[in-house]
């Protein structure tokens, strides 16, 4: 990678991170705590929605967020020709 | 011997033999094998090991009970969101970069990236946090042995110590990792089977995550009747500010705990580190989405069974657990002090959080083998976490103190021996703390997250993402975060004073404030202190890109300072 490609790789990595972290905060601090009361007015399969986000929805979303991250990073790595993973050095 | 004892014994013997067999198969003879399993663990296995390492006696035994009884029901969500949300931070902000940096321990990263003073602070923090934790695990082992096999807690703890001693001293991280994979399997099966069975029995929906929705309305109504805020009511037990702060403190603390972070060094590559985080959270989520359902079903069953029932008509689980003093009158005095024809209301008794999961098969009326399986699962949870923590302690002593400070010329064989001796010593201390737990352990475990959030998280993230973060900045930040958080905790915690705190912030949530202080101090001090060397700045730049690079290779040889 030359200097320009490196900057590009890092910028795209940061952008992906920012988007995922915003969603991370929205489902937990947002839906699970800050907006829990209005959301509780809605009921789905017996669950008040805010309560559901606090005890189920946020956790499920977290797993999906990391899944999206690893897949997108794989694609990004491939695009920039990074494939020497197995040769990474380890430790002194 | 009762059926339950017999089955417990069968499951404990089977699982313990399995652990010993695995440990024997994965003996190690190198420091790299001892500290990080040679960095050669495939991602799904590493994920399962992280999950077992992470889910302690507290997650397995106590969490459902805390959700059900410590607050109204919704209040326990802080643990569910906090202890899983931290993995998103780990996966996105720390795991890939720390793996690329390629060292053995957190103090190693702190020492290399910053300086020796910072390394020392990190070593002390890592050892303190780990010992506090491990004492809780050993006490959990004692609890299970006492209740299910009727041996005294001391014998239970000693048996647990012997098992951990065998596989941790022999196999180091390699033995621990593969044993943890087996322990995860045991604990998740033990958690899911009773949950699925109870959900299917009560609601006809065999998926507990969905099933418990159908009983929430009933539970809300029952709690209103008993004069407790509704089960699902927002802020029924904790206000919004504290819900936010405690959740954040647990999340950032999770991302700063040394025994979790070190696991990403065991991954094969940066890519494998990312996948390890994904697998880990997936495996953890299986238990964490089930726990709230166990909490709801147990609470409903308990209220229905106990409220307004005469003591002589109580179900058998009520009697077994009140005999060991884990169900008492509301003021803490023994149930047996009441006349046997007395009728108790739900508000008259106090049910210990720790028995909900252990008693859930009995409460749900499930057969004895399942009760035995749950006991084996609880032991798996406690032992797997204990071994991971012990490894952090022994590697901190052997690598960060002995090899880096005392004897840098030590041969590999000698380092390995020091590692094994440190491990053995740590096990003995942990066992002692498990048998004679200091009165404040339970509180301190919860506070450990706040301390980890306030000390480690900011300087790790800034060390990776900000090239100009300086050694003095990080040291000052770490100390500022640690000192303010500790001071606030000592000021407010019950045993020291019962202070009301500032703005009603609970001590468990103050870690978030400490973390913000740490960030602020690190950034400000970094502006006025000498920048890191150009070579270090280049190295920090390097770890942003996966794949092999010259500079990181040189750093791994110890040529970059």
Automatic annotation (TrEMBL), chain A:
Q: Which domain of life is it from?
A: Bacteria
Q: Where is the Sodium symporter small subunit domain?
A: 7-83
List the top taxonomic levels of the source.
Answer: Bacteria, Bacillati, Actinomycetota, Actinomycetes, Propionibacteriales
Source organism of this protein record: Nocardioides flavus
Keywords, alphabetical: Membrane, Transmembrane, Transmembrane helix
| KW Transmembrane (keyword) present | yes
What Pfam families does this protein map onto? DUF4212
Q: Does the keyword Membrane apply?
A: yes
Name the residues that span the membrane. Answer: 16-36, 51-71
- Name under which the protein is recorded: Membrane protein
TrEMBL record, chain B:
Family affiliation: Belongs to the sodium:solute symporter (SSF) (TC 2.A.21) family.
Membrane-spanning parts? 6-24, 45-71, 77-99, 120-145, 151-169, 181-200, 243-265, 277-297, 370-397, 417-435, 441-466, 473-491, 503-526
Q: What is this protein called?
A: Sodium/solute symporter
This protein's source sits in the domain of life called Bacteria
Q: Which UniProt keywords apply?
A: Membrane, Transmembrane, Transmembrane helix, Transport
Is-annotated flag, keyword ATP-binding?
A: no
How does it sit in the bilayer? Multi-pass membrane protein
The cross-references to InterPro entries, in alphabetical order and at most eight, read: Na/Glc_symporter_sf, Na/solute_symporter, Na/solute_symporter_VC_2705, Sodium:Solute_Symporter
Q: Which Pfam families does the entry mention?
A: SSF
Where does the record say this protein resides? Membrane
Taxonomic lineage is: Bacteria, Bacillati, Actinomycetota, Actinomycetes, Propionibacteriales
Gene3D superfamilies this protein is in?
Answer: Sodium/glucose cotransporter
